[in-house]
Sequence to fold (368 residues):
Amino acid sequence: MARSTPPTREAQLARFVLTRNLRVQPGENVIVEGWSHSLPWSVALVREARRLGAHPLLIYEDEAAFWDSVDAKEDAVLGAAPTHEWAALGKTDVYIHLWNVGDRIRMGALPPARVNRIFGFNDKWYDVAHKAKLRGTRLDIGRPFPNLAEAYGVDLETWTQQIFEGAMVDPAELERRGEPIAKALERGREIRIHDDDGTDLTLRLSGGEPVRDYGRVTAADRASRFRLLNFLPAGAVRIALDSRVAEGTFRANRASFSETGKATGGVFTFHGGRLSDHQFATGGAELFDVPYRRGGTGRDRPGYLSIGLNPKLPNTPQLEDREAGAILVSVGGNAFLPGGKNKSNFGGIAINAGATVEVDGRPLRLPR
Fold:
């Protein structure tokens, strides 16, 4: 008797995301957007969508062809709003984006004005997607790339496997872990974060509703122009802070990752509601100091608090706030969250896993 072939990792992830996270139904129209380096994952999503009785369409971008256009300075063409793609988008129920160009290091070296032109279609995309009332996700499995792994100092396959395992955590489990935290933050006002290694920081919540990142697109998400696509792997509860209140010190014991590198050993010191001092063991000059100088009004104010829920993401690059028990404190803008009023274009973060969080004097039980 012939043995059935076990499903590939790509097929497992595709089936899980389509059924557990996006709940794709027979007859729905699904668009998968992928790049050269993420093609095996994109193809698996297309195949599994068909098995579910859905109608998939694959939008494919070739990395080499993209950079050839960039080198030829075809920015206007790259950034144009293509009407035939918008027509398809307007008839789409589910959209899956496997991130974007793989070489983020090269992209980060381009002048910001060029990057804005190259991706000039972005606002129009959200207009059309919001009107279509679609739901979707950005899959981080499309982010690992060789030179970015080198910049982060991580093994490419280990990084990929962590993302795979993190994306396979059931949304119901993330909700079970997250709801007690979200409800405590909804009711609470004062936050104290402390440990035995020098962290002791007092913050105040803005009064806005926590944003629950459990891996499913909710009705509230679909009503928000920029939340109709969630991020997978998921696993966090985030809430805006009162930008006028912060006192004490917050010491990071996890790395923070940007699009092109990482910072370690971050220390934020607040006094009178402002960031009075900051330092990093490595990476801070490039990843924090340079954008901080351009941050404008509000760059030195507390931004938001995030608490991680996912047990499969051990300080995983670009997903560091989702590690179970990770506590993220940001400075800068928070207007993208309910109740947030800080419109600074700067956002800097530090992350501590293992500290105690108290809400109005009561310890908050964090997942580990």
Remarks:
- The first strand starts at residue 29 and ends at 35.
- Residues 171-214+234-363 form one domain.
- The two ends are 44 Å apart (CA to CA).
- The chain has two domains: 9-143, 171-214+234-363.
